[in-house]
TrEMBL record:
It comes from Bacteroides caecimuris. One of its GO terms (molecular function) is nucleotide binding. SUPFAM superfamilies: Glyceraldehyde-3-phosphate dehydrogenase-like, C-terminal domain (SSF55347), NAD(P)-binding Rossmann-fold domains (SSF51735). InterPro entries: Gfo/Idh/MocA-like_OxRdtase_N, Gfo/Idh/MocA_oxidrdct_glycsds, Gfo/Idh/MocA_OxRdtase_bact_C, NAD(P)-bd_dom_sf, TAT_signal. The lineage of its organism: Bacteria, Pseudomonadati, Bacteroidota, Bacteroidia, Bacteroidales. This is Oxidoreductase.
Length: 490
């Protein structure tokens, strides 16, 4: 009997004995081996009410065996779509009960819980699809990168543009030397489209019966429930999200990171509208400086400055940009300033074009993805680990990229130091924050109008050591009961 026939026989027999449709691939010892394309993965979905609903639907040709969300009202419509999937509030209980049966895990929870869930699933040998931003902190990104390598699993971050034709064309043009040397890039998003720039609510409200508030908080420090936090609006709150930069830079800056072969930035500066203690500001600007990289055969890769804008701010229109043409395409845009030409694209790398009007035909340099971003992940899960064709945003690439993004968030939160910050990416630390430097942020702006006169009576935090504050942002101290696995030595 051939190996394939034996597996089919075992699967059919096991299914008949258990009274289920399909035997879990992991039980058959196939989690890291070849799975026939006709076989279906057993997938667990965690965080399914918002973006996760779309992600799990994109994998619905597979077996969705378990679904988890802390808010059963918000996610109820998704639970109803998969009546055979077992329902959970707590992903840890789902792992205990269904972990041995699962092949892959889809994660679309708030940013601050991505790393905890993904790290545990990776150590169980599960393939991981995780929405962007990959993690909440630099340390968490480094951890997932190393864990994924150690366990040799298939991974994909949910920046869907990575699988699009636009990113492929951008890389073709840049690597073929069509733009020339690029020393400046400007990028922006039209987000936030959720509340930002807010003070922390004073009033605690009753937690809805359908929401497990403690599980929503997860590793974050305890705070009373208020409907301003969830669902979805958590993106603007520092403890749970990363603001417009963390959310959208993973889409907008991906073709920049990949096309220019960027690694760790060496310098960063941040500026914003009023910076609050608990909530991201309404608008932000960040400047990253990246060192020169190894030259490519047809183009040099000199030091490059990358500028980020959000909250309604955009770069100035380059000379020759057509009048009445919007820079914003699908939520943002990028301008690559080259010595030969100017390359412009939208969010996700969509609709790239050259200011000169040329449309160069260049040799292909990246694999064409003919399925969806999510189904390309499914394809990778089924391939043998030793010969797997990587997804378009594996943690090997998405991890370092996400480190850059969330380090930019730190530049915003450290802006009151009034200095350009020097970054040691390898060791995950700023190198020029003085040992005795302190930092304060605004708790409440105290804005009032009396007799027509505006007044700001700002309430500030006590001064705290800036080095300690930065370290806490780089690697969080989790609430009791929550812990990450150790960082691998590899």
């Amino acid at each position: 009997m051939s190996d394939f026939s034996r597996r089919k026989f075992l699967k059919t027999g096991a299914a008949a004995l258990a009274g289920i449709t399909i035997a879990p691939n992991s039980i058959l010892g196939m989690s890291h081996g070849h799975i026939s394309p006709s076989d279906k993965l057993n997938i667990l979905g965690i965080g399914i009410g918002g973006r996760g609903a779309s992600a799990i639907r994109s994998m619905s040709s597979q077996n969705i065996i378990g679904l988890c969300d802390v808010d059963w009202k918000y996610s109820g419509h998704v639970f109803d779509e998969y009546p055979k999937a077992k329902r959970y509030y707590d992903y840890r209980k789902m792992f205990d009960e269904l972990g041995k049966s699962a092949d892959a895990v889809m994660i679309a929870t708030p940013d601050h819980t991505h790393a905890l869930i993904a790290a545990e699933a990776i150590t169980m040998g599960k393939h991981i699809y995780c929405e962007k931003p990959l993690t909440h902190t630099v340390y968490e990104s480094r951890l997932l990168t190393k864990l994924a390598d150690k366990y040799n699993i298939a991974t994909q971050m949910g920046n869907q543009g990575a699988s699009g034709a636009g990113v492929r064309k951008i890389c073709e043009w840049i690597w073929n030397g069509e733009i020339g040397e690029i020393t400046k890039v400007e990028a922006f998003t039209d987000r936030p489209i959720w509340p930002q720039g807010l003070s922390r609510p004073d009033k605690a409200e009753r937690v809805p019966k359908t929401l497990n508030w403690d599980l929503f908080l997860g590793p974050a420090q305890y705070r009373d429930y208020n409907p301003i936090y969830t669902p979805w609006n958590w993106r603007g709150w520092w403890d749970f999200g990363t603001g417009a930069l963390g959310d959208m830079a993973c889409h907008v800056l991906h073709p920049v990171f990949k096309g220019l072969k960027l690694g760790y930035p060496t310098k960063v500066q941040g500026s914003s509208t009023l910076l609050m203690t608990d909530c991201a500001p309404n608008a932000q600007m960040v400047k990253f400086t990246f060192p020169a990289r190894d030259n490519m055969p047809k183009v040099a890769m000199p030091e490059v400055e990358v500028y980020w804008y959000d909250g309604g701010m955009k770069p100035m229109r380059p000379k020759g940009f057509p009048q009445n043409k919007n820079l914003n395409v699908d939520g943002g845009g990028v301008i690559f300033h080259g010595t030969k030409d100017t390359l412009i694209c939208g969010c996700y790398g969509r609709k790239p074009w050259l200011l000169s009007g040329r449309d160069p035909k260049c040799p292909p340099v990246l694999r064409e993805v003919k399925e969806t971003h999510e189904m390309d992940f499914v394809r990778a899960c089924k391939e043998n680990a030793s010969s797997r064709i990587q997804t378009t945003s594996p943690f090997k690439e998405a991890g370092p990229f996400n480190e850059m993004v969330v380090m930019g968030v730190l530049a915003i939160r450290l802006q009151s130091l009034n200095q350009e910050l020097l970054w040691d990416g390898l060791n995950m630390k700023f190198t020029n924050i003085a040992p005795n430097a302190t930092i304060q942020t605004v708790i409440k702006d105290g804005f009032t109008i009396k007799d027509g006169h505006p007044t700001f009576n700002k309430q500030w935090t006590d001064p705290i050591n800036a080095q300690a504050f930065a370290q806490e942002l780089i690697k969080h101290t989790y609430r009791d009961g929550w812990k990450l696995p150790d960082m691998p030595n590899n």
